[in-house]
């Protein structure tokens, strides 16, 4: 692991983003071994990104890119894999908003190819076709998270509504059934060894 105490560059050429080190923080793979030749698995994929200020300060942050995948059929779990891939980055000369976007977009974008390769290698070593995760749009992922955070903040303090005028009674009308839940991921055939599987991201 690289030395995260490296001093910041002396020259001031504007905003800088430096990758100092990267590493596997946690890796788990479970292979129950209960698959059959006719298994056509669904792949559930989860992605999470976090940035934590490093204890040494000096613009250092630890970025954690978490990937988890579950391959399953209607009756069996074929495999479970969880990977926490980390990196230490240094941000210099950026306003807070720009630094946040750089840490949660550019940093995981640099880490992703290495994490993706590990997922493919581990699933192949587990006797499955390599699981190749499609490229991730970290810009959209960041925007979605910001929208969820803003929605949660707005929901925590609802605006008082003015009292409504009483309405005359109306005849009862049938209530529409709730919308159906989203369609499950399309089944993906495992294929021959060495042929990649591509999951549907949730």
Task: Give the biggest beta sheet.
Answer: 5 strands, mixed
Helical residue percent band: 10-25%
Ranges where pLDDT stays below 50 over 5 or more residues in a row are: 165-194
CATH superfamily of the domain at 16-146: SecB-like
Strand content: 25-35%
Morphology: elongated
User: According to CATH, what is the class of the domain at 16-146?
Assistant: Alpha Beta
The CA-CA distance between the termini, in Å, is 32 Å
Order of helices and strands: EEEEHHE
CATH fold-type name of the domain at 16-146: Bacterial Protein-export protein SecB
Output the strand order for the largest sheet.
1-4-3-2-5
Tell me the total number of β-strands: 5
Structure annotation, total helices:
2
The overall average pLDDT, rounded, is 78
What is the CATH-assigned architecture of the domain at 16-146? Roll
What does this structure look like?
With 202 residues, this protein is an alpha+beta fold. The chain has two helices and five strands. It has a domain of 131 residues: Roll (Bacterial Protein-export protein SecB). The protein is 24% helix and 29% strand. Strand 2 and strand 3 form a beta hairpin. Helix 1 packs across helix 2.
List keywords for this structure.
five-stranded mixed β-sheet, alpha+beta, 202 residues, Bacterial Protein-export protein SecB
Summarize the structure.
The protein is 24% helix and 29% strand. The chain has 202 residues and is α+β, with helices and mostly antiparallel strands.
């Amino acid at each position: 692991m690289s030395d995260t105490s490296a001093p910041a560059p002396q020259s001031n050429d504007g905003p800088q983003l430096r990758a100092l080190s990267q590493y596997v923080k946690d890796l788990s793979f479970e292979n129950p071994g209960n698959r059959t030749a006719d298994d056509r698995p669904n792949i559930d994929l989860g992605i999470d990104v976090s940035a934590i200020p490093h204890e040494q300060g000096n613009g250092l942050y630890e970025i954690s890119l978490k990937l988890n995948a579950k391959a399953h059929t209607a009756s069996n779990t074929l495999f479970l894999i969880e990977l926490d891939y980390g990196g230490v980055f240094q941000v210099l000369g950026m306003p807070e908003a720009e630094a946040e976007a750089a840490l949660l977009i550019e940093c995981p974008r640099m880490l992703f190819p290495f994490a993706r390769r590990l997922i493919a290698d581990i699933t192949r070593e587990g006797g499955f076709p390599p699981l190749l995760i499609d490229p991730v749009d970290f810009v959209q992922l960041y925007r979605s998270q910001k929208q969820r955070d803003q929605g949660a903040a707005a929901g925590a303090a609802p605006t008082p509504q003015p009292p409504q005028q009483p309405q005359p009674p109306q005849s009862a009308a049938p209530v529409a059934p709730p919308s159906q839940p989203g369609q499950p991921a399309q089944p993906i055939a495992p294929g021959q060894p060495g042929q990649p599987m591509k999951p549907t991201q949730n």
